[in-house]
Amino acid sequence: MLSTTAQVLATIAVLGNGVVYGTDVLAGMVMRSVYRQLDDETMTVSAGWGHYFADRRMPFVGATGMIATVLTLVFAAVAGRAGGAIAAATALVALLIWGGIYLRIAKPINTAQTAAARTGVIPDNARALQDSWDAVAGYRIALQGIVIAALCAAIALL
């Protein structure tokens, strides 16, 4: 019963983290190229409104993915499923690193771009801000890929 519960939780974690992963992949594979084609003002306003809406809609799925990952680890460990617990722990570590990158680098840029979109005041360093955001996109994508793979492994090992 505990391992089945852990599998259900891991599935919920895959769904929640999958939304974040997909969003990061879209940003890295598509939006980065789009923004390079735009002038600084258009890029900043577009990115800013994207962050405005994402920052209001994404926390629920991100928190669901994080909580479900933690609970997967707990239930796998209590069920005595070492492989599943190790896989869930791997996912959790990757999520924590992703969160650190997001909070230290991406979130402040999101906030600056959102403010620019809402006020129409474009910062002098608009392109540098976007370049900094883009510079960590690959790491965020890789980390979320690890999260999804590790959670899928946890489902298989539970």
What is the strand and helix layout of this fold?
Layout: H1 2-36, H2 40-78, H3 82-119, H4 126-135, H5 137-157
Helix pairs in contact: 1-2, 1-5, 2-3, 3-4, 3-5
Question: Would you write up a description of this structure?
Answer:
With 158 residues, the chain is mainly α. Helices cover 91% and strands 0% of the residues. It has five helices and no strands. It has helices spanning 2-36, 40-78, 82-119, 126-135, 137-157. Helix 1 (2-36) packs antiparallel against helix 2 (40-78) and helix 1 runs antiparallel to helix 5 (137-157). The longest helix is centred in the middle third of the chain and has 39 residues, at 40-78. It is elongated, with a radius of gyration of 18 Å. The protein starts with a helix and ends with a helix. The relative contact order is 0.21. The mean pLDDT is 98.
